[in-house]
Write a structure and sequence with these properties.
206 residues; alpha+beta; Porin; 3 helices
């Protein structure tokens, strides 16, 4: 009798079924997965600022190399006219500021005697760069000079300095024409010589 009652109870009273997953929790799970996919997609397309930051200094720094003809007036009135070649190498720390090494050699033969003047100067240069192809600059340099006379006439050295400037006129993206004018002072113990240099040449910008 008891076994029959238990079997009848099992038939009439079904066992409890496990609860079905809530539709709202499933919807939230799908939404969270979609949000994660969207975030990962956006992160993959975000621009990376690192290379841009490191690229700025490399663009700002550059090198200028120039060479050209120079007329050199050794002394003021009653001085000697010399002709020669001058050149410079400039490392631009900024687009407007750089360090320059300026070198030149000038020759004359007054009275048939060879007279050579050499200058080597170093210092800062400031350049006004603008969207046009005309970039003026000014510089103040210190260094030395050497004057030689004839084949055995001896030589002497002087402390030298210069103040001047010029303008770079763009011809091609990395090539410019440069006219330049400088005052050059030569000092020796007990004497001072005023000189003028007028140059014209080409400059290559790297």
């Amino acid at each position: 009798m008891l076994s029959w009652a238990k079997s009848f109870q099992n038939r009439t009273c079904p066992r409890e079924r496990p609860p079905c997953p809530s539709s709202s929790s499933g919807l939230q799970t799908d939404r969270s997965r979609a949000y994660e996919r969207t975030q990962s997609h956006e992160k993959a397309h975000l621009p990376v600022p690192g290379p841009v930051v490191f690229a700025i200094p490399s663009r700002a720094q550059s090198v200028d190399v120039s060479v050209g003809y120079s007329y050199f007036r050794l002394g003021g009135s009653g001085g000697i006219n010399q002709n020669g070649v001058s050149g410079s190498l400039a490392y631009n720390l900024k687009s407007w500021a750089g360090i320059v090494g300026d070198f030149g050699g000038y020759h004359a033969s007054p009275g048939g005697v060879s007279l050579n003047t050499y200058t080597y100067l170093f210092g800062p240069r400031l350049t006004l760069r603008n969207p046009s192809k005309i970039n003026p600059f000014a510089q103040a340099l210190l260094g030395g000079s050497r004057i030689t006379i004839g084949s055995g006439g001896g030589s002497n050295s002087q402390f030298a300095y210069s103040l001047g400037g010029g303008v770079d006129i763009g011809l091609l993206p990395h090539l410019a024409f440069r006219p330049q004018v400088d005052y050059v002072g030569l000092n020796t113990p007990g004497s001072h010589t005023n000189c003028t240099r007028v140059s014209a040449g080409l400059v290559v910008h790297f």
